[in-house]
């Protein structure tokens, strides 16, 4: 009996240790390769140059075009997912019957389980041609369709987490609002959403973090042309797609070109690390408020 | 001379699904008087109280038979707008439930949802309501601070101020002082005494002394039935029904 418990305990410990070890080694590889990269290309160049052409003869190492591409697709995705996701969350909470809610929630979450490749092809072969029918200047590869489809993909993330946040608001607040003569709409937007705002914010941050890290959809539908622009109609490249592009190419290991993906990866890591910590911090504050 | 009745229930039955929660209740409540609902836990006091502002509408399976009249009009009639009704019939809950907003925003919430933006009106109403609720002196210097930072008793008076701000004619109170300390509780009682000059008040309470102190009329409920309804003095000195007598002397419930 005791031996058995000891074994289980050490297995649990081991799996925790392995997880931490893997994380540490990833960060270590990222860091050490990035250090080598930055010994050849200064951080100032990396952050200020306006072009990213490490694979060309005339090499430029400005990360900004990739950051701009990532930023652009993420903003579009959130612009799609936040209003829709929030509307769904409010609908489920304030209007839908409890029975309907138990069916629709898992159904929505199916959206999140579709492979991203499928989303990518959907963006390229359905959304882009559709958008082209009324945006004549739209390129075949563009940030817009990729962003929109990415937004669709993260709707369940926002709706589900926001719904949790809204239903965690004490019932007494809803009654207070109704008791004052609020309509359902006024109750939802004037009381429930503000009271759940920190939880909703967390859902948005996690969604941003997801969008920033999304690879397949942008790789397929947004083109692979690093470009410092906020124009959603032209091909762009994001940090993640660049990493895929180089990893799949025939760049020799250990070369400067090869190390660019670690510098890019490091940048990505910094972004998502900040976002995740932000959401963690907000969540902690928010829990204190209701306990 | 008898004042006209403000609220009236006529042959009211209420059901939660199959459960018969209120059984043919007939009662008429006088304007600008305090009526107390007493009775053992689960007898239907809150259910009855909540029919007056249709707060039960959101409960799945809840339905009523019969009529509730406010100033002689049936509030369950098809043409009645529930949100309009609730501006006429305000409610204060057992647990103080201020919004997580500033004190000022809490008080003017009811005006804001009516689309009133005029700063002067909002400020005047805020001060007036807070004074009426006897909490102005305690909060006048921190109107922009969060309402959640107030004590429970202060929060409850703030909720009363919030209800007063939209000038209802009826105020429903469901055990408004039961979650409060004796001093805050006494303040709420004083307040009710003041408010009845202008408002018709219906209060649910488990505290017999409180019912005796604040109310003009008392209704005793037992298992969904209205057993006895009379002037509070009469009820407490010479109850008709033995069940009432047992209850108010503390023999059960
Ligand atoms: N949402 C509901 N669904 C089903 N039954 C309910 C619901 N709310 C109340 N009831 C039942 O209706 C009856 C009356 O409840 P009500 O809350 O009106 O009692 P009360 O007199 O206010 O009690 P208390 O003094 O404990 O507040 C109880 O038997 C209760 O179980
Ligand atoms: Mg009750």
From TrEMBL, chain A:
List membrane-spanning regions: 12-31, 63-89, 110-131, 143-166, 187-208, 261-282
Q: Which SUPFAM superfamilies match?
A: MetI-like
* Domain ABC transmembrane type-1: from-to ranges: 67-279
Q: What Gene3D superfamilies does this protein's entry cite?
A: MetI-like
Q: How does this chain sit within the bilayer? A: Multi-pass membrane protein
- This protein's record includes keyword 4Fe-4S: no
Q: What is its main location?
A: membrane
The protein's matches in NCBIfam families, at most eight in alphabetical order, are given as:
phosphate_pstC
What does it do?
Part of the binding-protein-dependent transport system for phosphate; probably responsible for the translocation of the substrate across the membrane.
Protein name in the entry: Phosphate transport system permease protein
Q: Which organism is it from?
A: Pontibacter aquaedesilientis
Its ancestry begins with: Bacteria, Pseudomonadati, Bacteroidota, Cytophagia, Cytophagales
From TrEMBL, chain B:
**Residue span, ABC transporter domain:** 7-248
Pfam families listed in its UniProt record: ABC_tran
Q: Which InterPro entries match?
A: AAA+_ATPase, ABC_transporter-like_ATP-bd, ABC_transporter-like_CS, P-loop_NTPase, PstB-like
Q: Which residues form a coiled coil?
A: none
Arranged from A to Z, the UniProt key words for this protein are: ATP-binding, Nucleotide-binding, Phosphate transport, Transport
For this chain, one GO molecular function annotation is: ATP binding
Query: What's the name of the protein?
Result: Phosphate ABC transporter ATP-binding protein
User: What is the organism of origin for this protein?
Assistant: Pontibacter aquaedesilientis
Phylogenetic classification of the source organism: Bacteria, Pseudomonadati, Bacteroidota, Cytophagia, Cytophagales
